[in-house]
Amino acid sequence: MKVKVVIKEAKANKLELISPARNLEFGIEAINHGADAIYIGGPRFGARAAAENSVADIEKLAAYAHRYSAQVLVALNTILRDEELEQARRIAWQAYEAGADALIVQDMGLLDLDLPPLQLHASTQTDNRTPEKVKFLQDVGFAQIVLARELSLEQIRKIASGTTATLEFFVHGALCAAYSGQCYLSYAHTGRSANRGECSQACRLPYSLKDQDGRMIAENRHLLSMKDNNQSANLRALVDAGIRAFKIEGRLKTLSYVKNVTAYYRILLDNLMAEAPEYRPASAGRCSYTFTPNLGKTFNRAATDFFVNQRQPDIASFASPKFAGEHIGHIGKLGQGWFKVHSSVPLHNGDGLSYYNSLMELRGMRINRVETQGTSFRLFPAEAVAGLAENMPVYRNRDQEFERLLEKKSAERRIGVCMTFRETNDGFALDMCDESGIATTVSLIQAKQPSRHAENALATLREHLGKLGNTCFSVEKITVELTAAWFIPATSLNALRREAVTTLEAQRSAAYQRPPKWPAVVPPPQYPESAISYLGNVFNEKACDFYASHGVSLIDAAYEANMERNAVSLMITKHCLRYSFNLCPKLVKGVHPKPMSLINGREKLTLVFDCQKCEMHVVGKLKRPWAIQHAVK
Fold it and tell me: In 3D, which of 228, 203, 223 has the Cα closest to residue 305?
């Protein structure tokens, strides 16, 4: 057997789709449905306490992803106590040895440790909003930087013009009301820190809003709950602004969400690259699906593109933080244990429906049986339903038929190959080259005998060479270079094809190279500010040393160190309730940006408005000093 390998030069200007992985199974399916990279938590410190994974599973996932030249990014992005740094360092090395491609980091204390030669990505928790901050992160060794979700296209362009690092942006999924890394509301009220992966989602609670004079502006509404991010209409604009990595939120979402949303954005990016051939996908293989991706079918709180196209009037989900679903029609006649719905879409047994009752509370039901009568459906809920009324809008938040498609094998990812079957002096050879430019040649020593059925010989030859069904390859082209229609036993052809496939897979594995770690510049760059408050999330001595070595002279401890006992900003957000309720002093004459109150039960928070920056601060203090008694000096 003779083998040769050819590797084409890597293509520039790649666009990368990054999908979430709760676990190994989710990560594999994200790859199958088109992800160029997946991000996953390791054994600890992954900013999602409920989505931790063993090193063994990361190793399996990396081996699978690398078949398609896809990457595995391990989230190590909580802030760390001093006594946790050594364990975090060990996890980083374990991830490297398991085959991971990069670490996603928030705590700068890690950079002062003996880290493996893995590429570093700056988490969105590092609050990356300015050209100066992004340039600094690039210069200390971050190759990829996740920008703040609140940025506009203009702001992204300014950042991109000042960095050579890859810029990453969230394009889909849940939105925090606060700037990432700048929310302490959960910790202040429950002791569960968002910067430690334990957020209690206080922003999804109902609140009442009062002005300074005690006038009720809004009552019992989800005033800090954002709609879900959806940048599907802005992908080309984001590319033009400088984004090269497109991230889907959702390490705690369902498998059907990961499959559906990944496939949807894969198709969009492929279409974009077909129209703009100067861009290339960041991994190999093309996907086919057994379903039509539809973002409205899986969990969402309605859609917003947030601030990408400047401030928009309707970015919040005040009515409910739950998934209402797609509007399907209105309730018609009500009967004993049933009701009718007039809908233009077919309904099925097992569908989940939702509706808002008279108190505007979202309620749901499961449909046990459906009787179809034209465009009218008689529905029999599994349990008694209260609060229904004729003409009430109704929504579907579970499409049973769609979910059943996603419960099965719903995608196939294949790497395109071209084959050439040709004669040699002592027999035949099969050349196989994949879409990445990796090629192999396998030889068959055999005497040449004319076929008795010359008219069928070539067709049979092509048929046997093209049988790649159980592999990760698909045939794009088969070229046959023969001087005559030779007889070649089917067993020999099949063995030759299998050997070529096995060899090519091995060569792909051997050719895969993890992205290089970026070195920090020398001398060390200066941090853009000389002082860091609790907002800098400095939670250990190594982080303190890091900032001091980069010119910071005054360093306060992280909020979680329990040093801030007075009222401070527990949340800094670009979402403004004055704007939402038409009380913005920039837009309404005679209105003054006086503080307001946000009330949930006995909890009362003060809203302070920084109109110059167009930001709202949710101000409060620790309910009590939590168990973490840790101070950074």
Answer: 228
